[in-house]
Each structure stands twice: as C-alpha cells, then as structure tokens.
Amino acid sequence: MKKILIIGNSLSAWSVANAFINKKVNITIIGYKYKTFGAQQLSPNGFKALKELTENNEVKKIVHEIIKFQINSYNNNKTKNLKNFYFNEFDLKYFSVSREMLINFLIKNVKRNIQISEINKSCVGFIQRKPGKFEVLMDNNEYITADIIIGCDGVNGITRKYVCGTTKIDKKQVFRGVSDDKKQLLLKQKTLELNFSNYGHFVSYPFINNNKTYINYVFIPNRRFQDSNEILGKLKSISKFSTIEWNKGYFYFFEDEIQTIHRNNILLFGDAGFSFEPHLAQVGNKIIEDANYLKFLVENTNSYDEIFEDFSINTCEKKRKLKSISNIVGMSFGISTLTKLRNNIVSNFSDQLICNFFKKIWYD
Ligand SMILES: Cc1cc2nc3c(=O)[nH]c(=O)nc-3n(C[C@H](O)[C@H](O)[C@H](O)COP(=O)(O)OP(=O)(O)OC[C@H]3O[C@@H](n4cnc5c(N)ncnc54)[C@H](O)[C@@H]3O)c2cc1C
User: Fold this and answer.
1) Ligand 1 binding site (Cβ under 6 Å of any ligand atom)
2) Residue 167's pLDDT band (boundaries 50, 70, 90)?
3) Fold for domain 2-363?
4) pTM of the entire structure?
5) Tens digit of each residue's pLDDT (9 = 90 or more) over 264-318
6) In 114-255, which ranges are continuous DSSP H helix?
7) Helix axis angle, 283-300 relative to 44-54, nearest 10°?
C-alpha cells in the first residue's frame, strides 16, 4: 500500500486527501489544527469539482446560494448602484460556503473512505537519505518516510523552498470581518456585493455556518493606503461597518513565473504550489478543481512521475492566465484616480459581457 504524507492542515490538505478516496493508500496528515474563519465564494466550477471530488451529494447542504452580483460605488456613507447581474438569468449557480463547514465536509468524506493518521506537529525540514526520495523531519526531531509527499503548507511553507529554492513573495494588506447584524442580513439576502470606495474596495456576501446566517466582509485598501497605519480608523468610520470587528491580515502571492511544482517524491499543492491575488475569488476554487484533476490522474495513470509532470504542466498553465487577469482586475479595483471613468465603464457593462467574462474565468 502506497504511503502518502500530506504537510498542512487546511483547505488544500483535505482537498488533496480526497483525491485518493478510491485508492488503497495510507495517508498521514502533518500539521497543527487551527480555527478557520469566515467564508469563501464557491463559483460553478468549484462547486462542480467539489461534487465530483467527494462523490457526495450532501455538498448541497453546506452551501448557500447567491443569486445577485451587485457593483456599487460607496463614498461619504452614500451608495450608488453601478451594476446588477443575476446569475440565474444565465443558468449559472453561484454559492458561498463557510470555511469551517467546507473543511469539515472534506475531512468527514475522506475518513469515510480511507484510513487517515493525523499528526499534530509541524514539519521543519527534509532529508534525502536515498536517491530521489525525501523524508520529512518534524519538530520533535522524528523523521517520517513516505512514497509520496504533498506540500500543502501554504505560500510561506517550507516545502516550496525544498522544491523550488527561494521564490519572490509579494504581500498585501487585507481586512476581514464577519457580522450577524440583522439589518444588513435583510438587505444583503443572497447578494454578492462589490463596493468601490476612496479607501479601497470591499466585498461582502452572506453565508451559513451551523444553521446561522452571517455576512462575510473583505476589505482591500487601495494602493495609496496599502501601507497606511490609519486605514483601520478610516474603515471603522464608515457607518455601515461600525458593528464589525475587523481582523487585519495579509494575502501573499508569488511574483515569479512558476515553472515547476514537483521534485523527486514531493509535489506542491494549493497555495504552496501556485498562489495569485484573490480578486477573482478563484484561488480556493482552483484548489478544489486541482484536487479533482489529481484524482482523475491518480485513477488513470500508473506512474507517480507521470502524474506529477502532467499535473504540474496542466494546472500551472491555467493559473498563469488567471494570475495575470487577477492582477489587472486588482489594479482597476485599487485605483485612486480616474475612478469616475472606471465607474462609468462598469455601469455600462452589458449582462452578456459579464457572463462571458465569468465563463472565461471559470471554464477556460
Ligand atoms: C482575502 C482573501 C479572500 C479569499 N476569498 C476566496 C474566495 O472567495 N474564493 C476562493 O476560491 N478563494 C478565496 N481565497 C483563497 C483561499 O482562501 C486560499 O487560497 C486557501 O485558503 C489556501 O489554502 P491552502 O491550504 O493552500 O493554504 P493555507 O490556508 O495557507 O494553509 C496552509 C496550512 O499549512 C500549515 N503549515 C504551514 N507550515 C507548516 C509546517 N511547516 N508543517 C506543517 N503544517 C504547516 C498551516 O498551519 C495551514 O494549516 C481568498 C484569500 C484571501 C486572502
């Protein structure tokens, strides 16, 4: 029986574990448990991949349908509606999902099918005692061997350094919040909102966590305020955000062109392999899609060298395109000048144009 070692304990780790549900393998997951927070958008490609990956129809029970995409400009506590787009008019199904429920669903699904050992420790390094095969060193100085090691330890994880050497990583400030404010919940039913403001853009949408509805907020400061210490104060001064407790964080992404994501018996997966800016809400969706593609390869290819090579070429190619589109979208969201022109262009977008754009992002 093949021994698979997965480093990390988040979305990627549990998605990739599901890629092996039909194989006779022994999986070990190494990583400290941590509390997940908030929600993520699940676009049609991510939803389809999640259903195929888990082969579990119960997935419908953890998602919350979003029917409207609304773009506004928001300044001086006044909202101006620029554009409304209704997903169902184009037969598109869009969802939100609580991160906690998504990860728990993936965990439960994989444990129903295969044997999993969990080690609540951190990986601190690798050693190569036999040619072509790495072993993992943990923080208690023990080594673990495996036939395959999958690095799901995120952008700043150590696995990437062993596979690719140093990589140039960019980071940007982001604020996240969750609210159960009744008035906002009534206003935002089933709506994904994108608001441009003088300070930055914010995205909000409802999601359900353990039978209770919340709103997930993300605020990304404009380029002008990216390094400002005053931005949190400005954010709090916006009246509709007064009840939200904002958590400051960063999003990280690779600046370099990513060429390879495997070396010997190690494969990089999720943010550890290829991360880009979050403006298309696709990084997490792609993780689920990639896990589903890996599942296909695992079930239809005999050699792991071939699987790694095919997976690396195909998934990186798609994400290179998304990376450049996301970068352009982020720049247009984050401008501080010519905002009137941008808003004018957005309000003149046709529904068909928005639909075509989404389809390109999700299905190309
Ligand atoms: C603001 C924002 C909004 C987003 N919104 C969306 C969205 O709406 N839709 C979407 O599809 N995506 C979204 N994303 C992207 C998505 O959330 C991430 O891509 C995803 O969480 C990455 O998962 P991961 O498991 O690869 O990495 P991470 O979540 O970074 O997890 C890495 C794991 O590895 C563990 N680890 C690290 N080092 C070690 C070690 N040495 N040993 C053992 N374990 C280790 C960590 O503890 C952690 O468990 C968003 C991202 C941001 C920043």
Assistant:
1) 7-13, 30-32, 34, 40-41, 122-123, 152-154, 157-158, 174, 218, 251, 270-271, 278, 281-285, 287
2) confident
3) FAD/NAD(P)-binding domain (3.50.50)
4) 0.96
5) 999 999 999 999 999 999 999 999 999 999 999 999 998 999 999 999 999 999 9
6) 159-164, 182-187, 231-236
7) 40
